[in-house]
Amino acid sequence: MGDAKRKKEVSVILPAFNEEKTVDEVIERTLRAFKENAIDGEIIFVDDGSTDATPEKANRWSEGSADIRVITHLKNKGLTEALLTGFKASGGSVVVFLCTDMQSDPQEDIPKLVNEIRKGYDVVLGWRQKRRETKVLVSRVYRLFCSMLFGVDFHDMNWIKAFRSEVAKSFRLHSDWHRYLPILAHGEGYKISEIKTTYHPRKYGKSRYDFSRIHKGFLDLISVKFHLSFLNRPMLFFGSIGLALLALGLFIGLVLTVLFFAFGIQIRPALLLAVLLLLAGLQVLSVGFLGELIVHIDQRIKKLEDDLGR
């Protein structure tokens, strides 16, 4: 299984779920890429709860090479968890994520990604060329929203990537956030590059993409926006809403007061609305204060972890 602590230049993460027909080819071509380009590399094969012969085939390769390690999830957890497992286990100074279904070609793509990282970039994104699928339209819509929300214009965020090790291991991801790794990296100020890569249609099986995921993707976009913009400043979000509600409630109350004393007019529904707005504003502000306390505690815990780590 190899020594997990041994330092390598490149760690290639191969997450797989029921990819028995491509396991041999993807591992063989990855090893060939190492040899042909004089790359001191290792393979971290993450079996994400496969129910076919995927883990057995991968384990046969690991038995014959100290540079191949297989990590198995007892159940399918999704690509995000598989990547986090691979990132954590990687020992290379450069971490490369490739597709195990051979839609990317390790022999072509590994040297491209690694060479771009060597130029000084922190993250390198593969950009699929000559892609012809229905999903392309959805990707363009995502790209438009990402441009509006985050000010980024990456051509292909949900494809193969390379990271410096410290970048890969810094990510804190929720379910299905793997597609937003470039946005999260951009939010941290990392230097990002894109390179064109060849796209190979899937030979075996079928894509696990489901159009029902589209609405989940847009909800995740909102979550990521909140994460980047307000996670460490919750009062900025909740405080703005709370103050707006308070201001509206006070305005309505002031108008009702003037109407009552100047003209004797009483509008009880409007009075009830003003009270509700004031109460809602105070509650939202309270949530903001609680959020600030949680952030403060979280920062103290992180500092303690850093001190213990040192």
Keywords:
7-stranded mixed sheet; alpha/beta; single chain; 53% helix; 7 strands
Summed over residues and divided by their number, the pLDDT gives a mean of 89
Give the C-alpha Rg.
25 Å
| Oligomer class | single chain
End-to-end separation in angstroms reads 29 Å
Q: Which range best describes the helical content: under 10%, 10-25%, 25-40%, 40-55%, 55-70% or over 70%?
A: 40-55%
> CATH topology of the largest domain, which one?
Spore Coat Polysaccharide Biosynthesis Protein SpsA, Chain A
Structural class: alpha/beta
The stretches of 5 or more residues where confidence is low (pLDDT under 50) are none
Main sheet specs: 7 strands, mixed
DSSP E strands, number: 7
Number of helices: 10
* Coarse shape: elongated
CATH homologous superfamily caption of the largest domain: Spore Coat Polysaccharide Biosynthesis Protein SpsA, Chain A
How many domain modules? Answer: 2
Element-level helix/strand string: EHEHEHEHEHEHHEHHH
In CATH terms, what is the architecture of the largest domain?
Alpha-Beta Complex
- In CATH, what is the class of the largest domain? Alpha Beta
User: How are strands sequenced across the largest beta sheet?
Assistant: 3-2-1-4-6-5-7
Task: Describe this entry's structure for a reader.
The protein has 310 residues and is an alpha/beta fold. The chain folds into two domains: 8-230, Spore Coat Polysaccharide Biosynthesis Protein SpsA, Chain A; 234-309. Helix content is 53%, strand content 15%. It has helices spanning 23-36, 54-63, 79-89, 106-118, 135-150, 165-168, 181-187, 213-230, 234-263, 268-309, and strands spanning 8-16, 41-48, 68-73, 92-97, 123-129, 161-164, 192-198. Strands 3-2-1-4-6-5-7 form a seven-stranded mixed sheet, with helices on both faces. Helix 2 links the parallel strand 2 (41-48) and strand 3. The two termini are 29 Å apart. The mean pLDDT is 89.
